Amino acid sequence: MADKENLENDVEKEVKQTEKNDSKGENKNKEVVPKQDYDELDDRYKRILAEFENFKKRSAKEREGLYNSILSDVIEVILPVVDNLENAAKVETKDESYKQGVELVLKQFKDVLTSKGIEEIKAVGETFDPSLHEAVSSIKDDTKGEKEIVQEYRKGYKIGNRVIRHSMVVVAN
Predict the structure, then answer these.
(1) N or C: more exposed end of the chain, with fewer CB within 10 A?
(2) In terms of C-beta density within 10 A (0-12 exposed, 13-18 middle, 19 or more buried), how is residue 100 classed?
(3) Contact (CB, 8 A) for 153 and 170
(4) In the sheet that 167-172 helps form, which strands lie side by side, from edge to edge?
(5) Which of 16-25, 53-62, 144-153 is the least confident region?
(6) Can you tell me the distance from the alpha carbon of 87 to that of 138, in angstroms, rounded to the nearest whole number?
(7) Residue 171 pLDDT > 80
């Protein structure tokens, strides 16, 4: 906006200087910019400025999408490690300090995922959603609701609205 005002002020100064010089008879070789040409240039300037703003917004959005895409590719490779740590934490053992160590490493992995915006997809007790869940089996259970998830074989994860890995679930009814 300040650039437009500066441009208008510069044009006004040039027109005044030209008028002053023309009244003295000094500036016969300089051309005066007609109002119509000025309006065309002003319009062109506004359009280019708007185009540039749109370009900056589009570039920022593409950069963020690329970042999330690369991050999800990296996380997808790490998720089996998290699954194995979860399984190791569930196993009964006589060595409690060993179990605590595994749980601490698992917690650290989950904290890293959370810090990067990765969320677990809720499954058990939720309604089946094919965009988030992958049904591997179904059961008949009158105590459960229609398309209710009763068991989760593998956790799913997402970043924002993008699913990194679908939850593998058992659906009732």
Answers:
(1) N
(2) exposed
(3) yes
(4) 133-139, 167-172, 148-154
(5) 16-25
(6) 24
(7) yes
- pLDDT at residue 22, as a whole number: 58
Q: List the Cα angle 14/16/21 in 5-degree steps.
A: 95
119-173: CATH superfamily:
Head domain of nucleotide exchange factor GrpE (2.30.22.10)
Closest to 18 (Cα-Cα) out of 5, 6, 27: 27
Distances (CA, A) of 68 to 102, 161, 173: 29, 10, 36
Report domain extents, the chain: 119-173
pTM passes above 0.85: no
At 145 the pLDDT is 83
What are the pLDDT digits (tens) for 58-92?
A: 999 999 989 989 999 999 999 999 999 999 999 99
- Residue of 141, 144, 155, 146 lying closest to 128 (CA atoms): 146
How far is 92 from 97, CA to CA, in rounded Å? 12
- The predicted pLDDT at position 29 comes to 54
CA distance 122 to 46: 48
Strand partners, 127: 148
Report the alpha-carbon distance of residue 170 to residue 153 in Å, rounded.
8
